[in-house]
């Protein structure tokens, strides 16, 4: 530890200690004084050795993990990551990524190009709709799974309740009430295999009630649009502006159900304004309709506390959908659906027909992760890292694409870059795909033609240096 203290000399007086420690550690890595595989002291030990608070060291470690310079795994400690990039010119020791050298909501697989899911061999930089899968809390999940397995009764291994494991529904009800201001009882909830199954269940219940068309935000998620159409529901585009869904336009469509993303509209990122929320509830009451709330990415807000969900205001009008895909991993297929009482029988019937019951052991493990506080701890860590990565993309866009307009940066795992009129965003996105990048063209997220061209850029999957180079490459492709 004394050796590390010598390697990270810096001024330890005054404010900004975390910035200076981050910079000193980064310098030691970039210069080769710390090399790939070197194990760093625990945050507690380094704090004692450097005579700092532990919080300063934890923040510095987390920033460098977010940058891809350190690896941190419970049980294995913190080590220098392999394949370190060189320091980008002009970077300041602030923990925020600055532009590097120009060497180079839910959307899941890259569906926009051919209309069908494409095989994904690796996660492409700037691809929206996916988390950093390397951040999956393997140790915490394994412990939660082992606890669930130890505590599971023999009867728990039988075919379970179609609505899901009672323990998970109880933990979810508490979590959604605490974090999303929802008003849900465990009996209101269905554990689903991801949000995808939840959309299918809602579509089936609507069809059974004679509802054949659903309003959907324009622009909106192409993958959800295709999913609903595949389940036999017609879609009617409803425009979105700076206040969110245009409820007056919704009234004119004559539909009795609408899908909305009120906390963080996909893809624009706007929040449904308070007057629009009130108007939307009024519409639902007048037409005896259903509001389907896709609460994706709601936990990831960076400018203020997350906006409360619609369901918590009018649970009798709202079907609430969420999942752990963006916070943990899509492969877990853990989602949930809360529906008003009059829709429960149809949804339960659909769930039973779909898969009899869900994966009970995974549901019990998720319940353990929620109950232990491990899920909240993981989300706090992700929020800090996402903010750093988002800042890197914003900085790079402003440097390399100065004529672009950036929006949707306050929350979520993506932002929107509007490009100059006349830009062919589909061709640009295709060229980016050929260069190994994964942005989505904004025009493909609209049903009706029109609106500015642009790209949807994800920032959750890669460290800042990679994201900065990806934006630089994109700028080269855009000319």
From TrEMBL:
<dbReference type="InterPro" id="IPR036388">
    <property type="entry name" value="WH-like_DNA-bd_sf"/>
</dbReference>
<dbReference type="Pfam" id="PF00392">
    <property type="entry name" value="GntR"/>
</dbReference>
<dbReference type="Pfam" id="PF00155">
    <property type="entry name" value="Aminotran_1_2"/>
</dbReference>
<keyword id="KW-0663">Pyridoxal phosphate</keyword>
<dbReference type="GO" id="GO:0008483">
    <property type="term" value="F:transaminase activity"/>
</dbReference>
<keyword id="KW-0238">DNA-binding</keyword>
<protein>
    <submittedName>
        <fullName>PLP-dependent aminotransferase family protein</fullName>
    </submittedName>
</protein>
<dbReference type="InterPro" id="IPR015424">
    <property type="entry name" value="PyrdxlP-dep_Trfase"/>
</dbReference>
<keyword id="KW-0804">Transcription</keyword>
<dbReference type="InterPro" id="IPR004839">
    <property type="entry name" value="Aminotransferase_I/II_large"/>
</dbReference>
<dbReference type="InterPro" id="IPR051446">
    <property type="entry name" value="HTH_trans_reg/aminotransferase"/>
</dbReference>
<dbReference type="InterPro" id="IPR015421">
    <property type="entry name" value="PyrdxlP-dep_Trfase_major"/>
</dbReference>
<feature type="domain" description="HTH gntR-type">
    <location>
        <begin position="15"/>
        <end position="83"/>
    </location>
</feature>
<keyword id="KW-0805">Transcription regulation</keyword>
<feature type="compositionally biased region" description="Basic and acidic residues">
    <location>
        <begin position="99"/>
        <end position="114"/>
    </location>
</feature>
<feature type="region of interest" description="Disordered">
    <location>
        <begin position="74"/>
        <end position="124"/>
    </location>
</feature>
<keyword id="KW-0808">Transferase</keyword>
<keyword id="KW-0032">Aminotransferase</keyword>
<dbReference type="InterPro" id="IPR000524">
    <property type="entry name" value="Tscrpt_reg_HTH_GntR"/>
</dbReference>
<comment type="similarity">
    <text>In the C-terminal section; belongs to the class-I pyridoxal-phosphate-dependent aminotransferase family.</text>
</comment>
<dbReference type="InterPro" id="IPR036390">
    <property type="entry name" value="WH_DNA-bd_sf"/>
</dbReference>
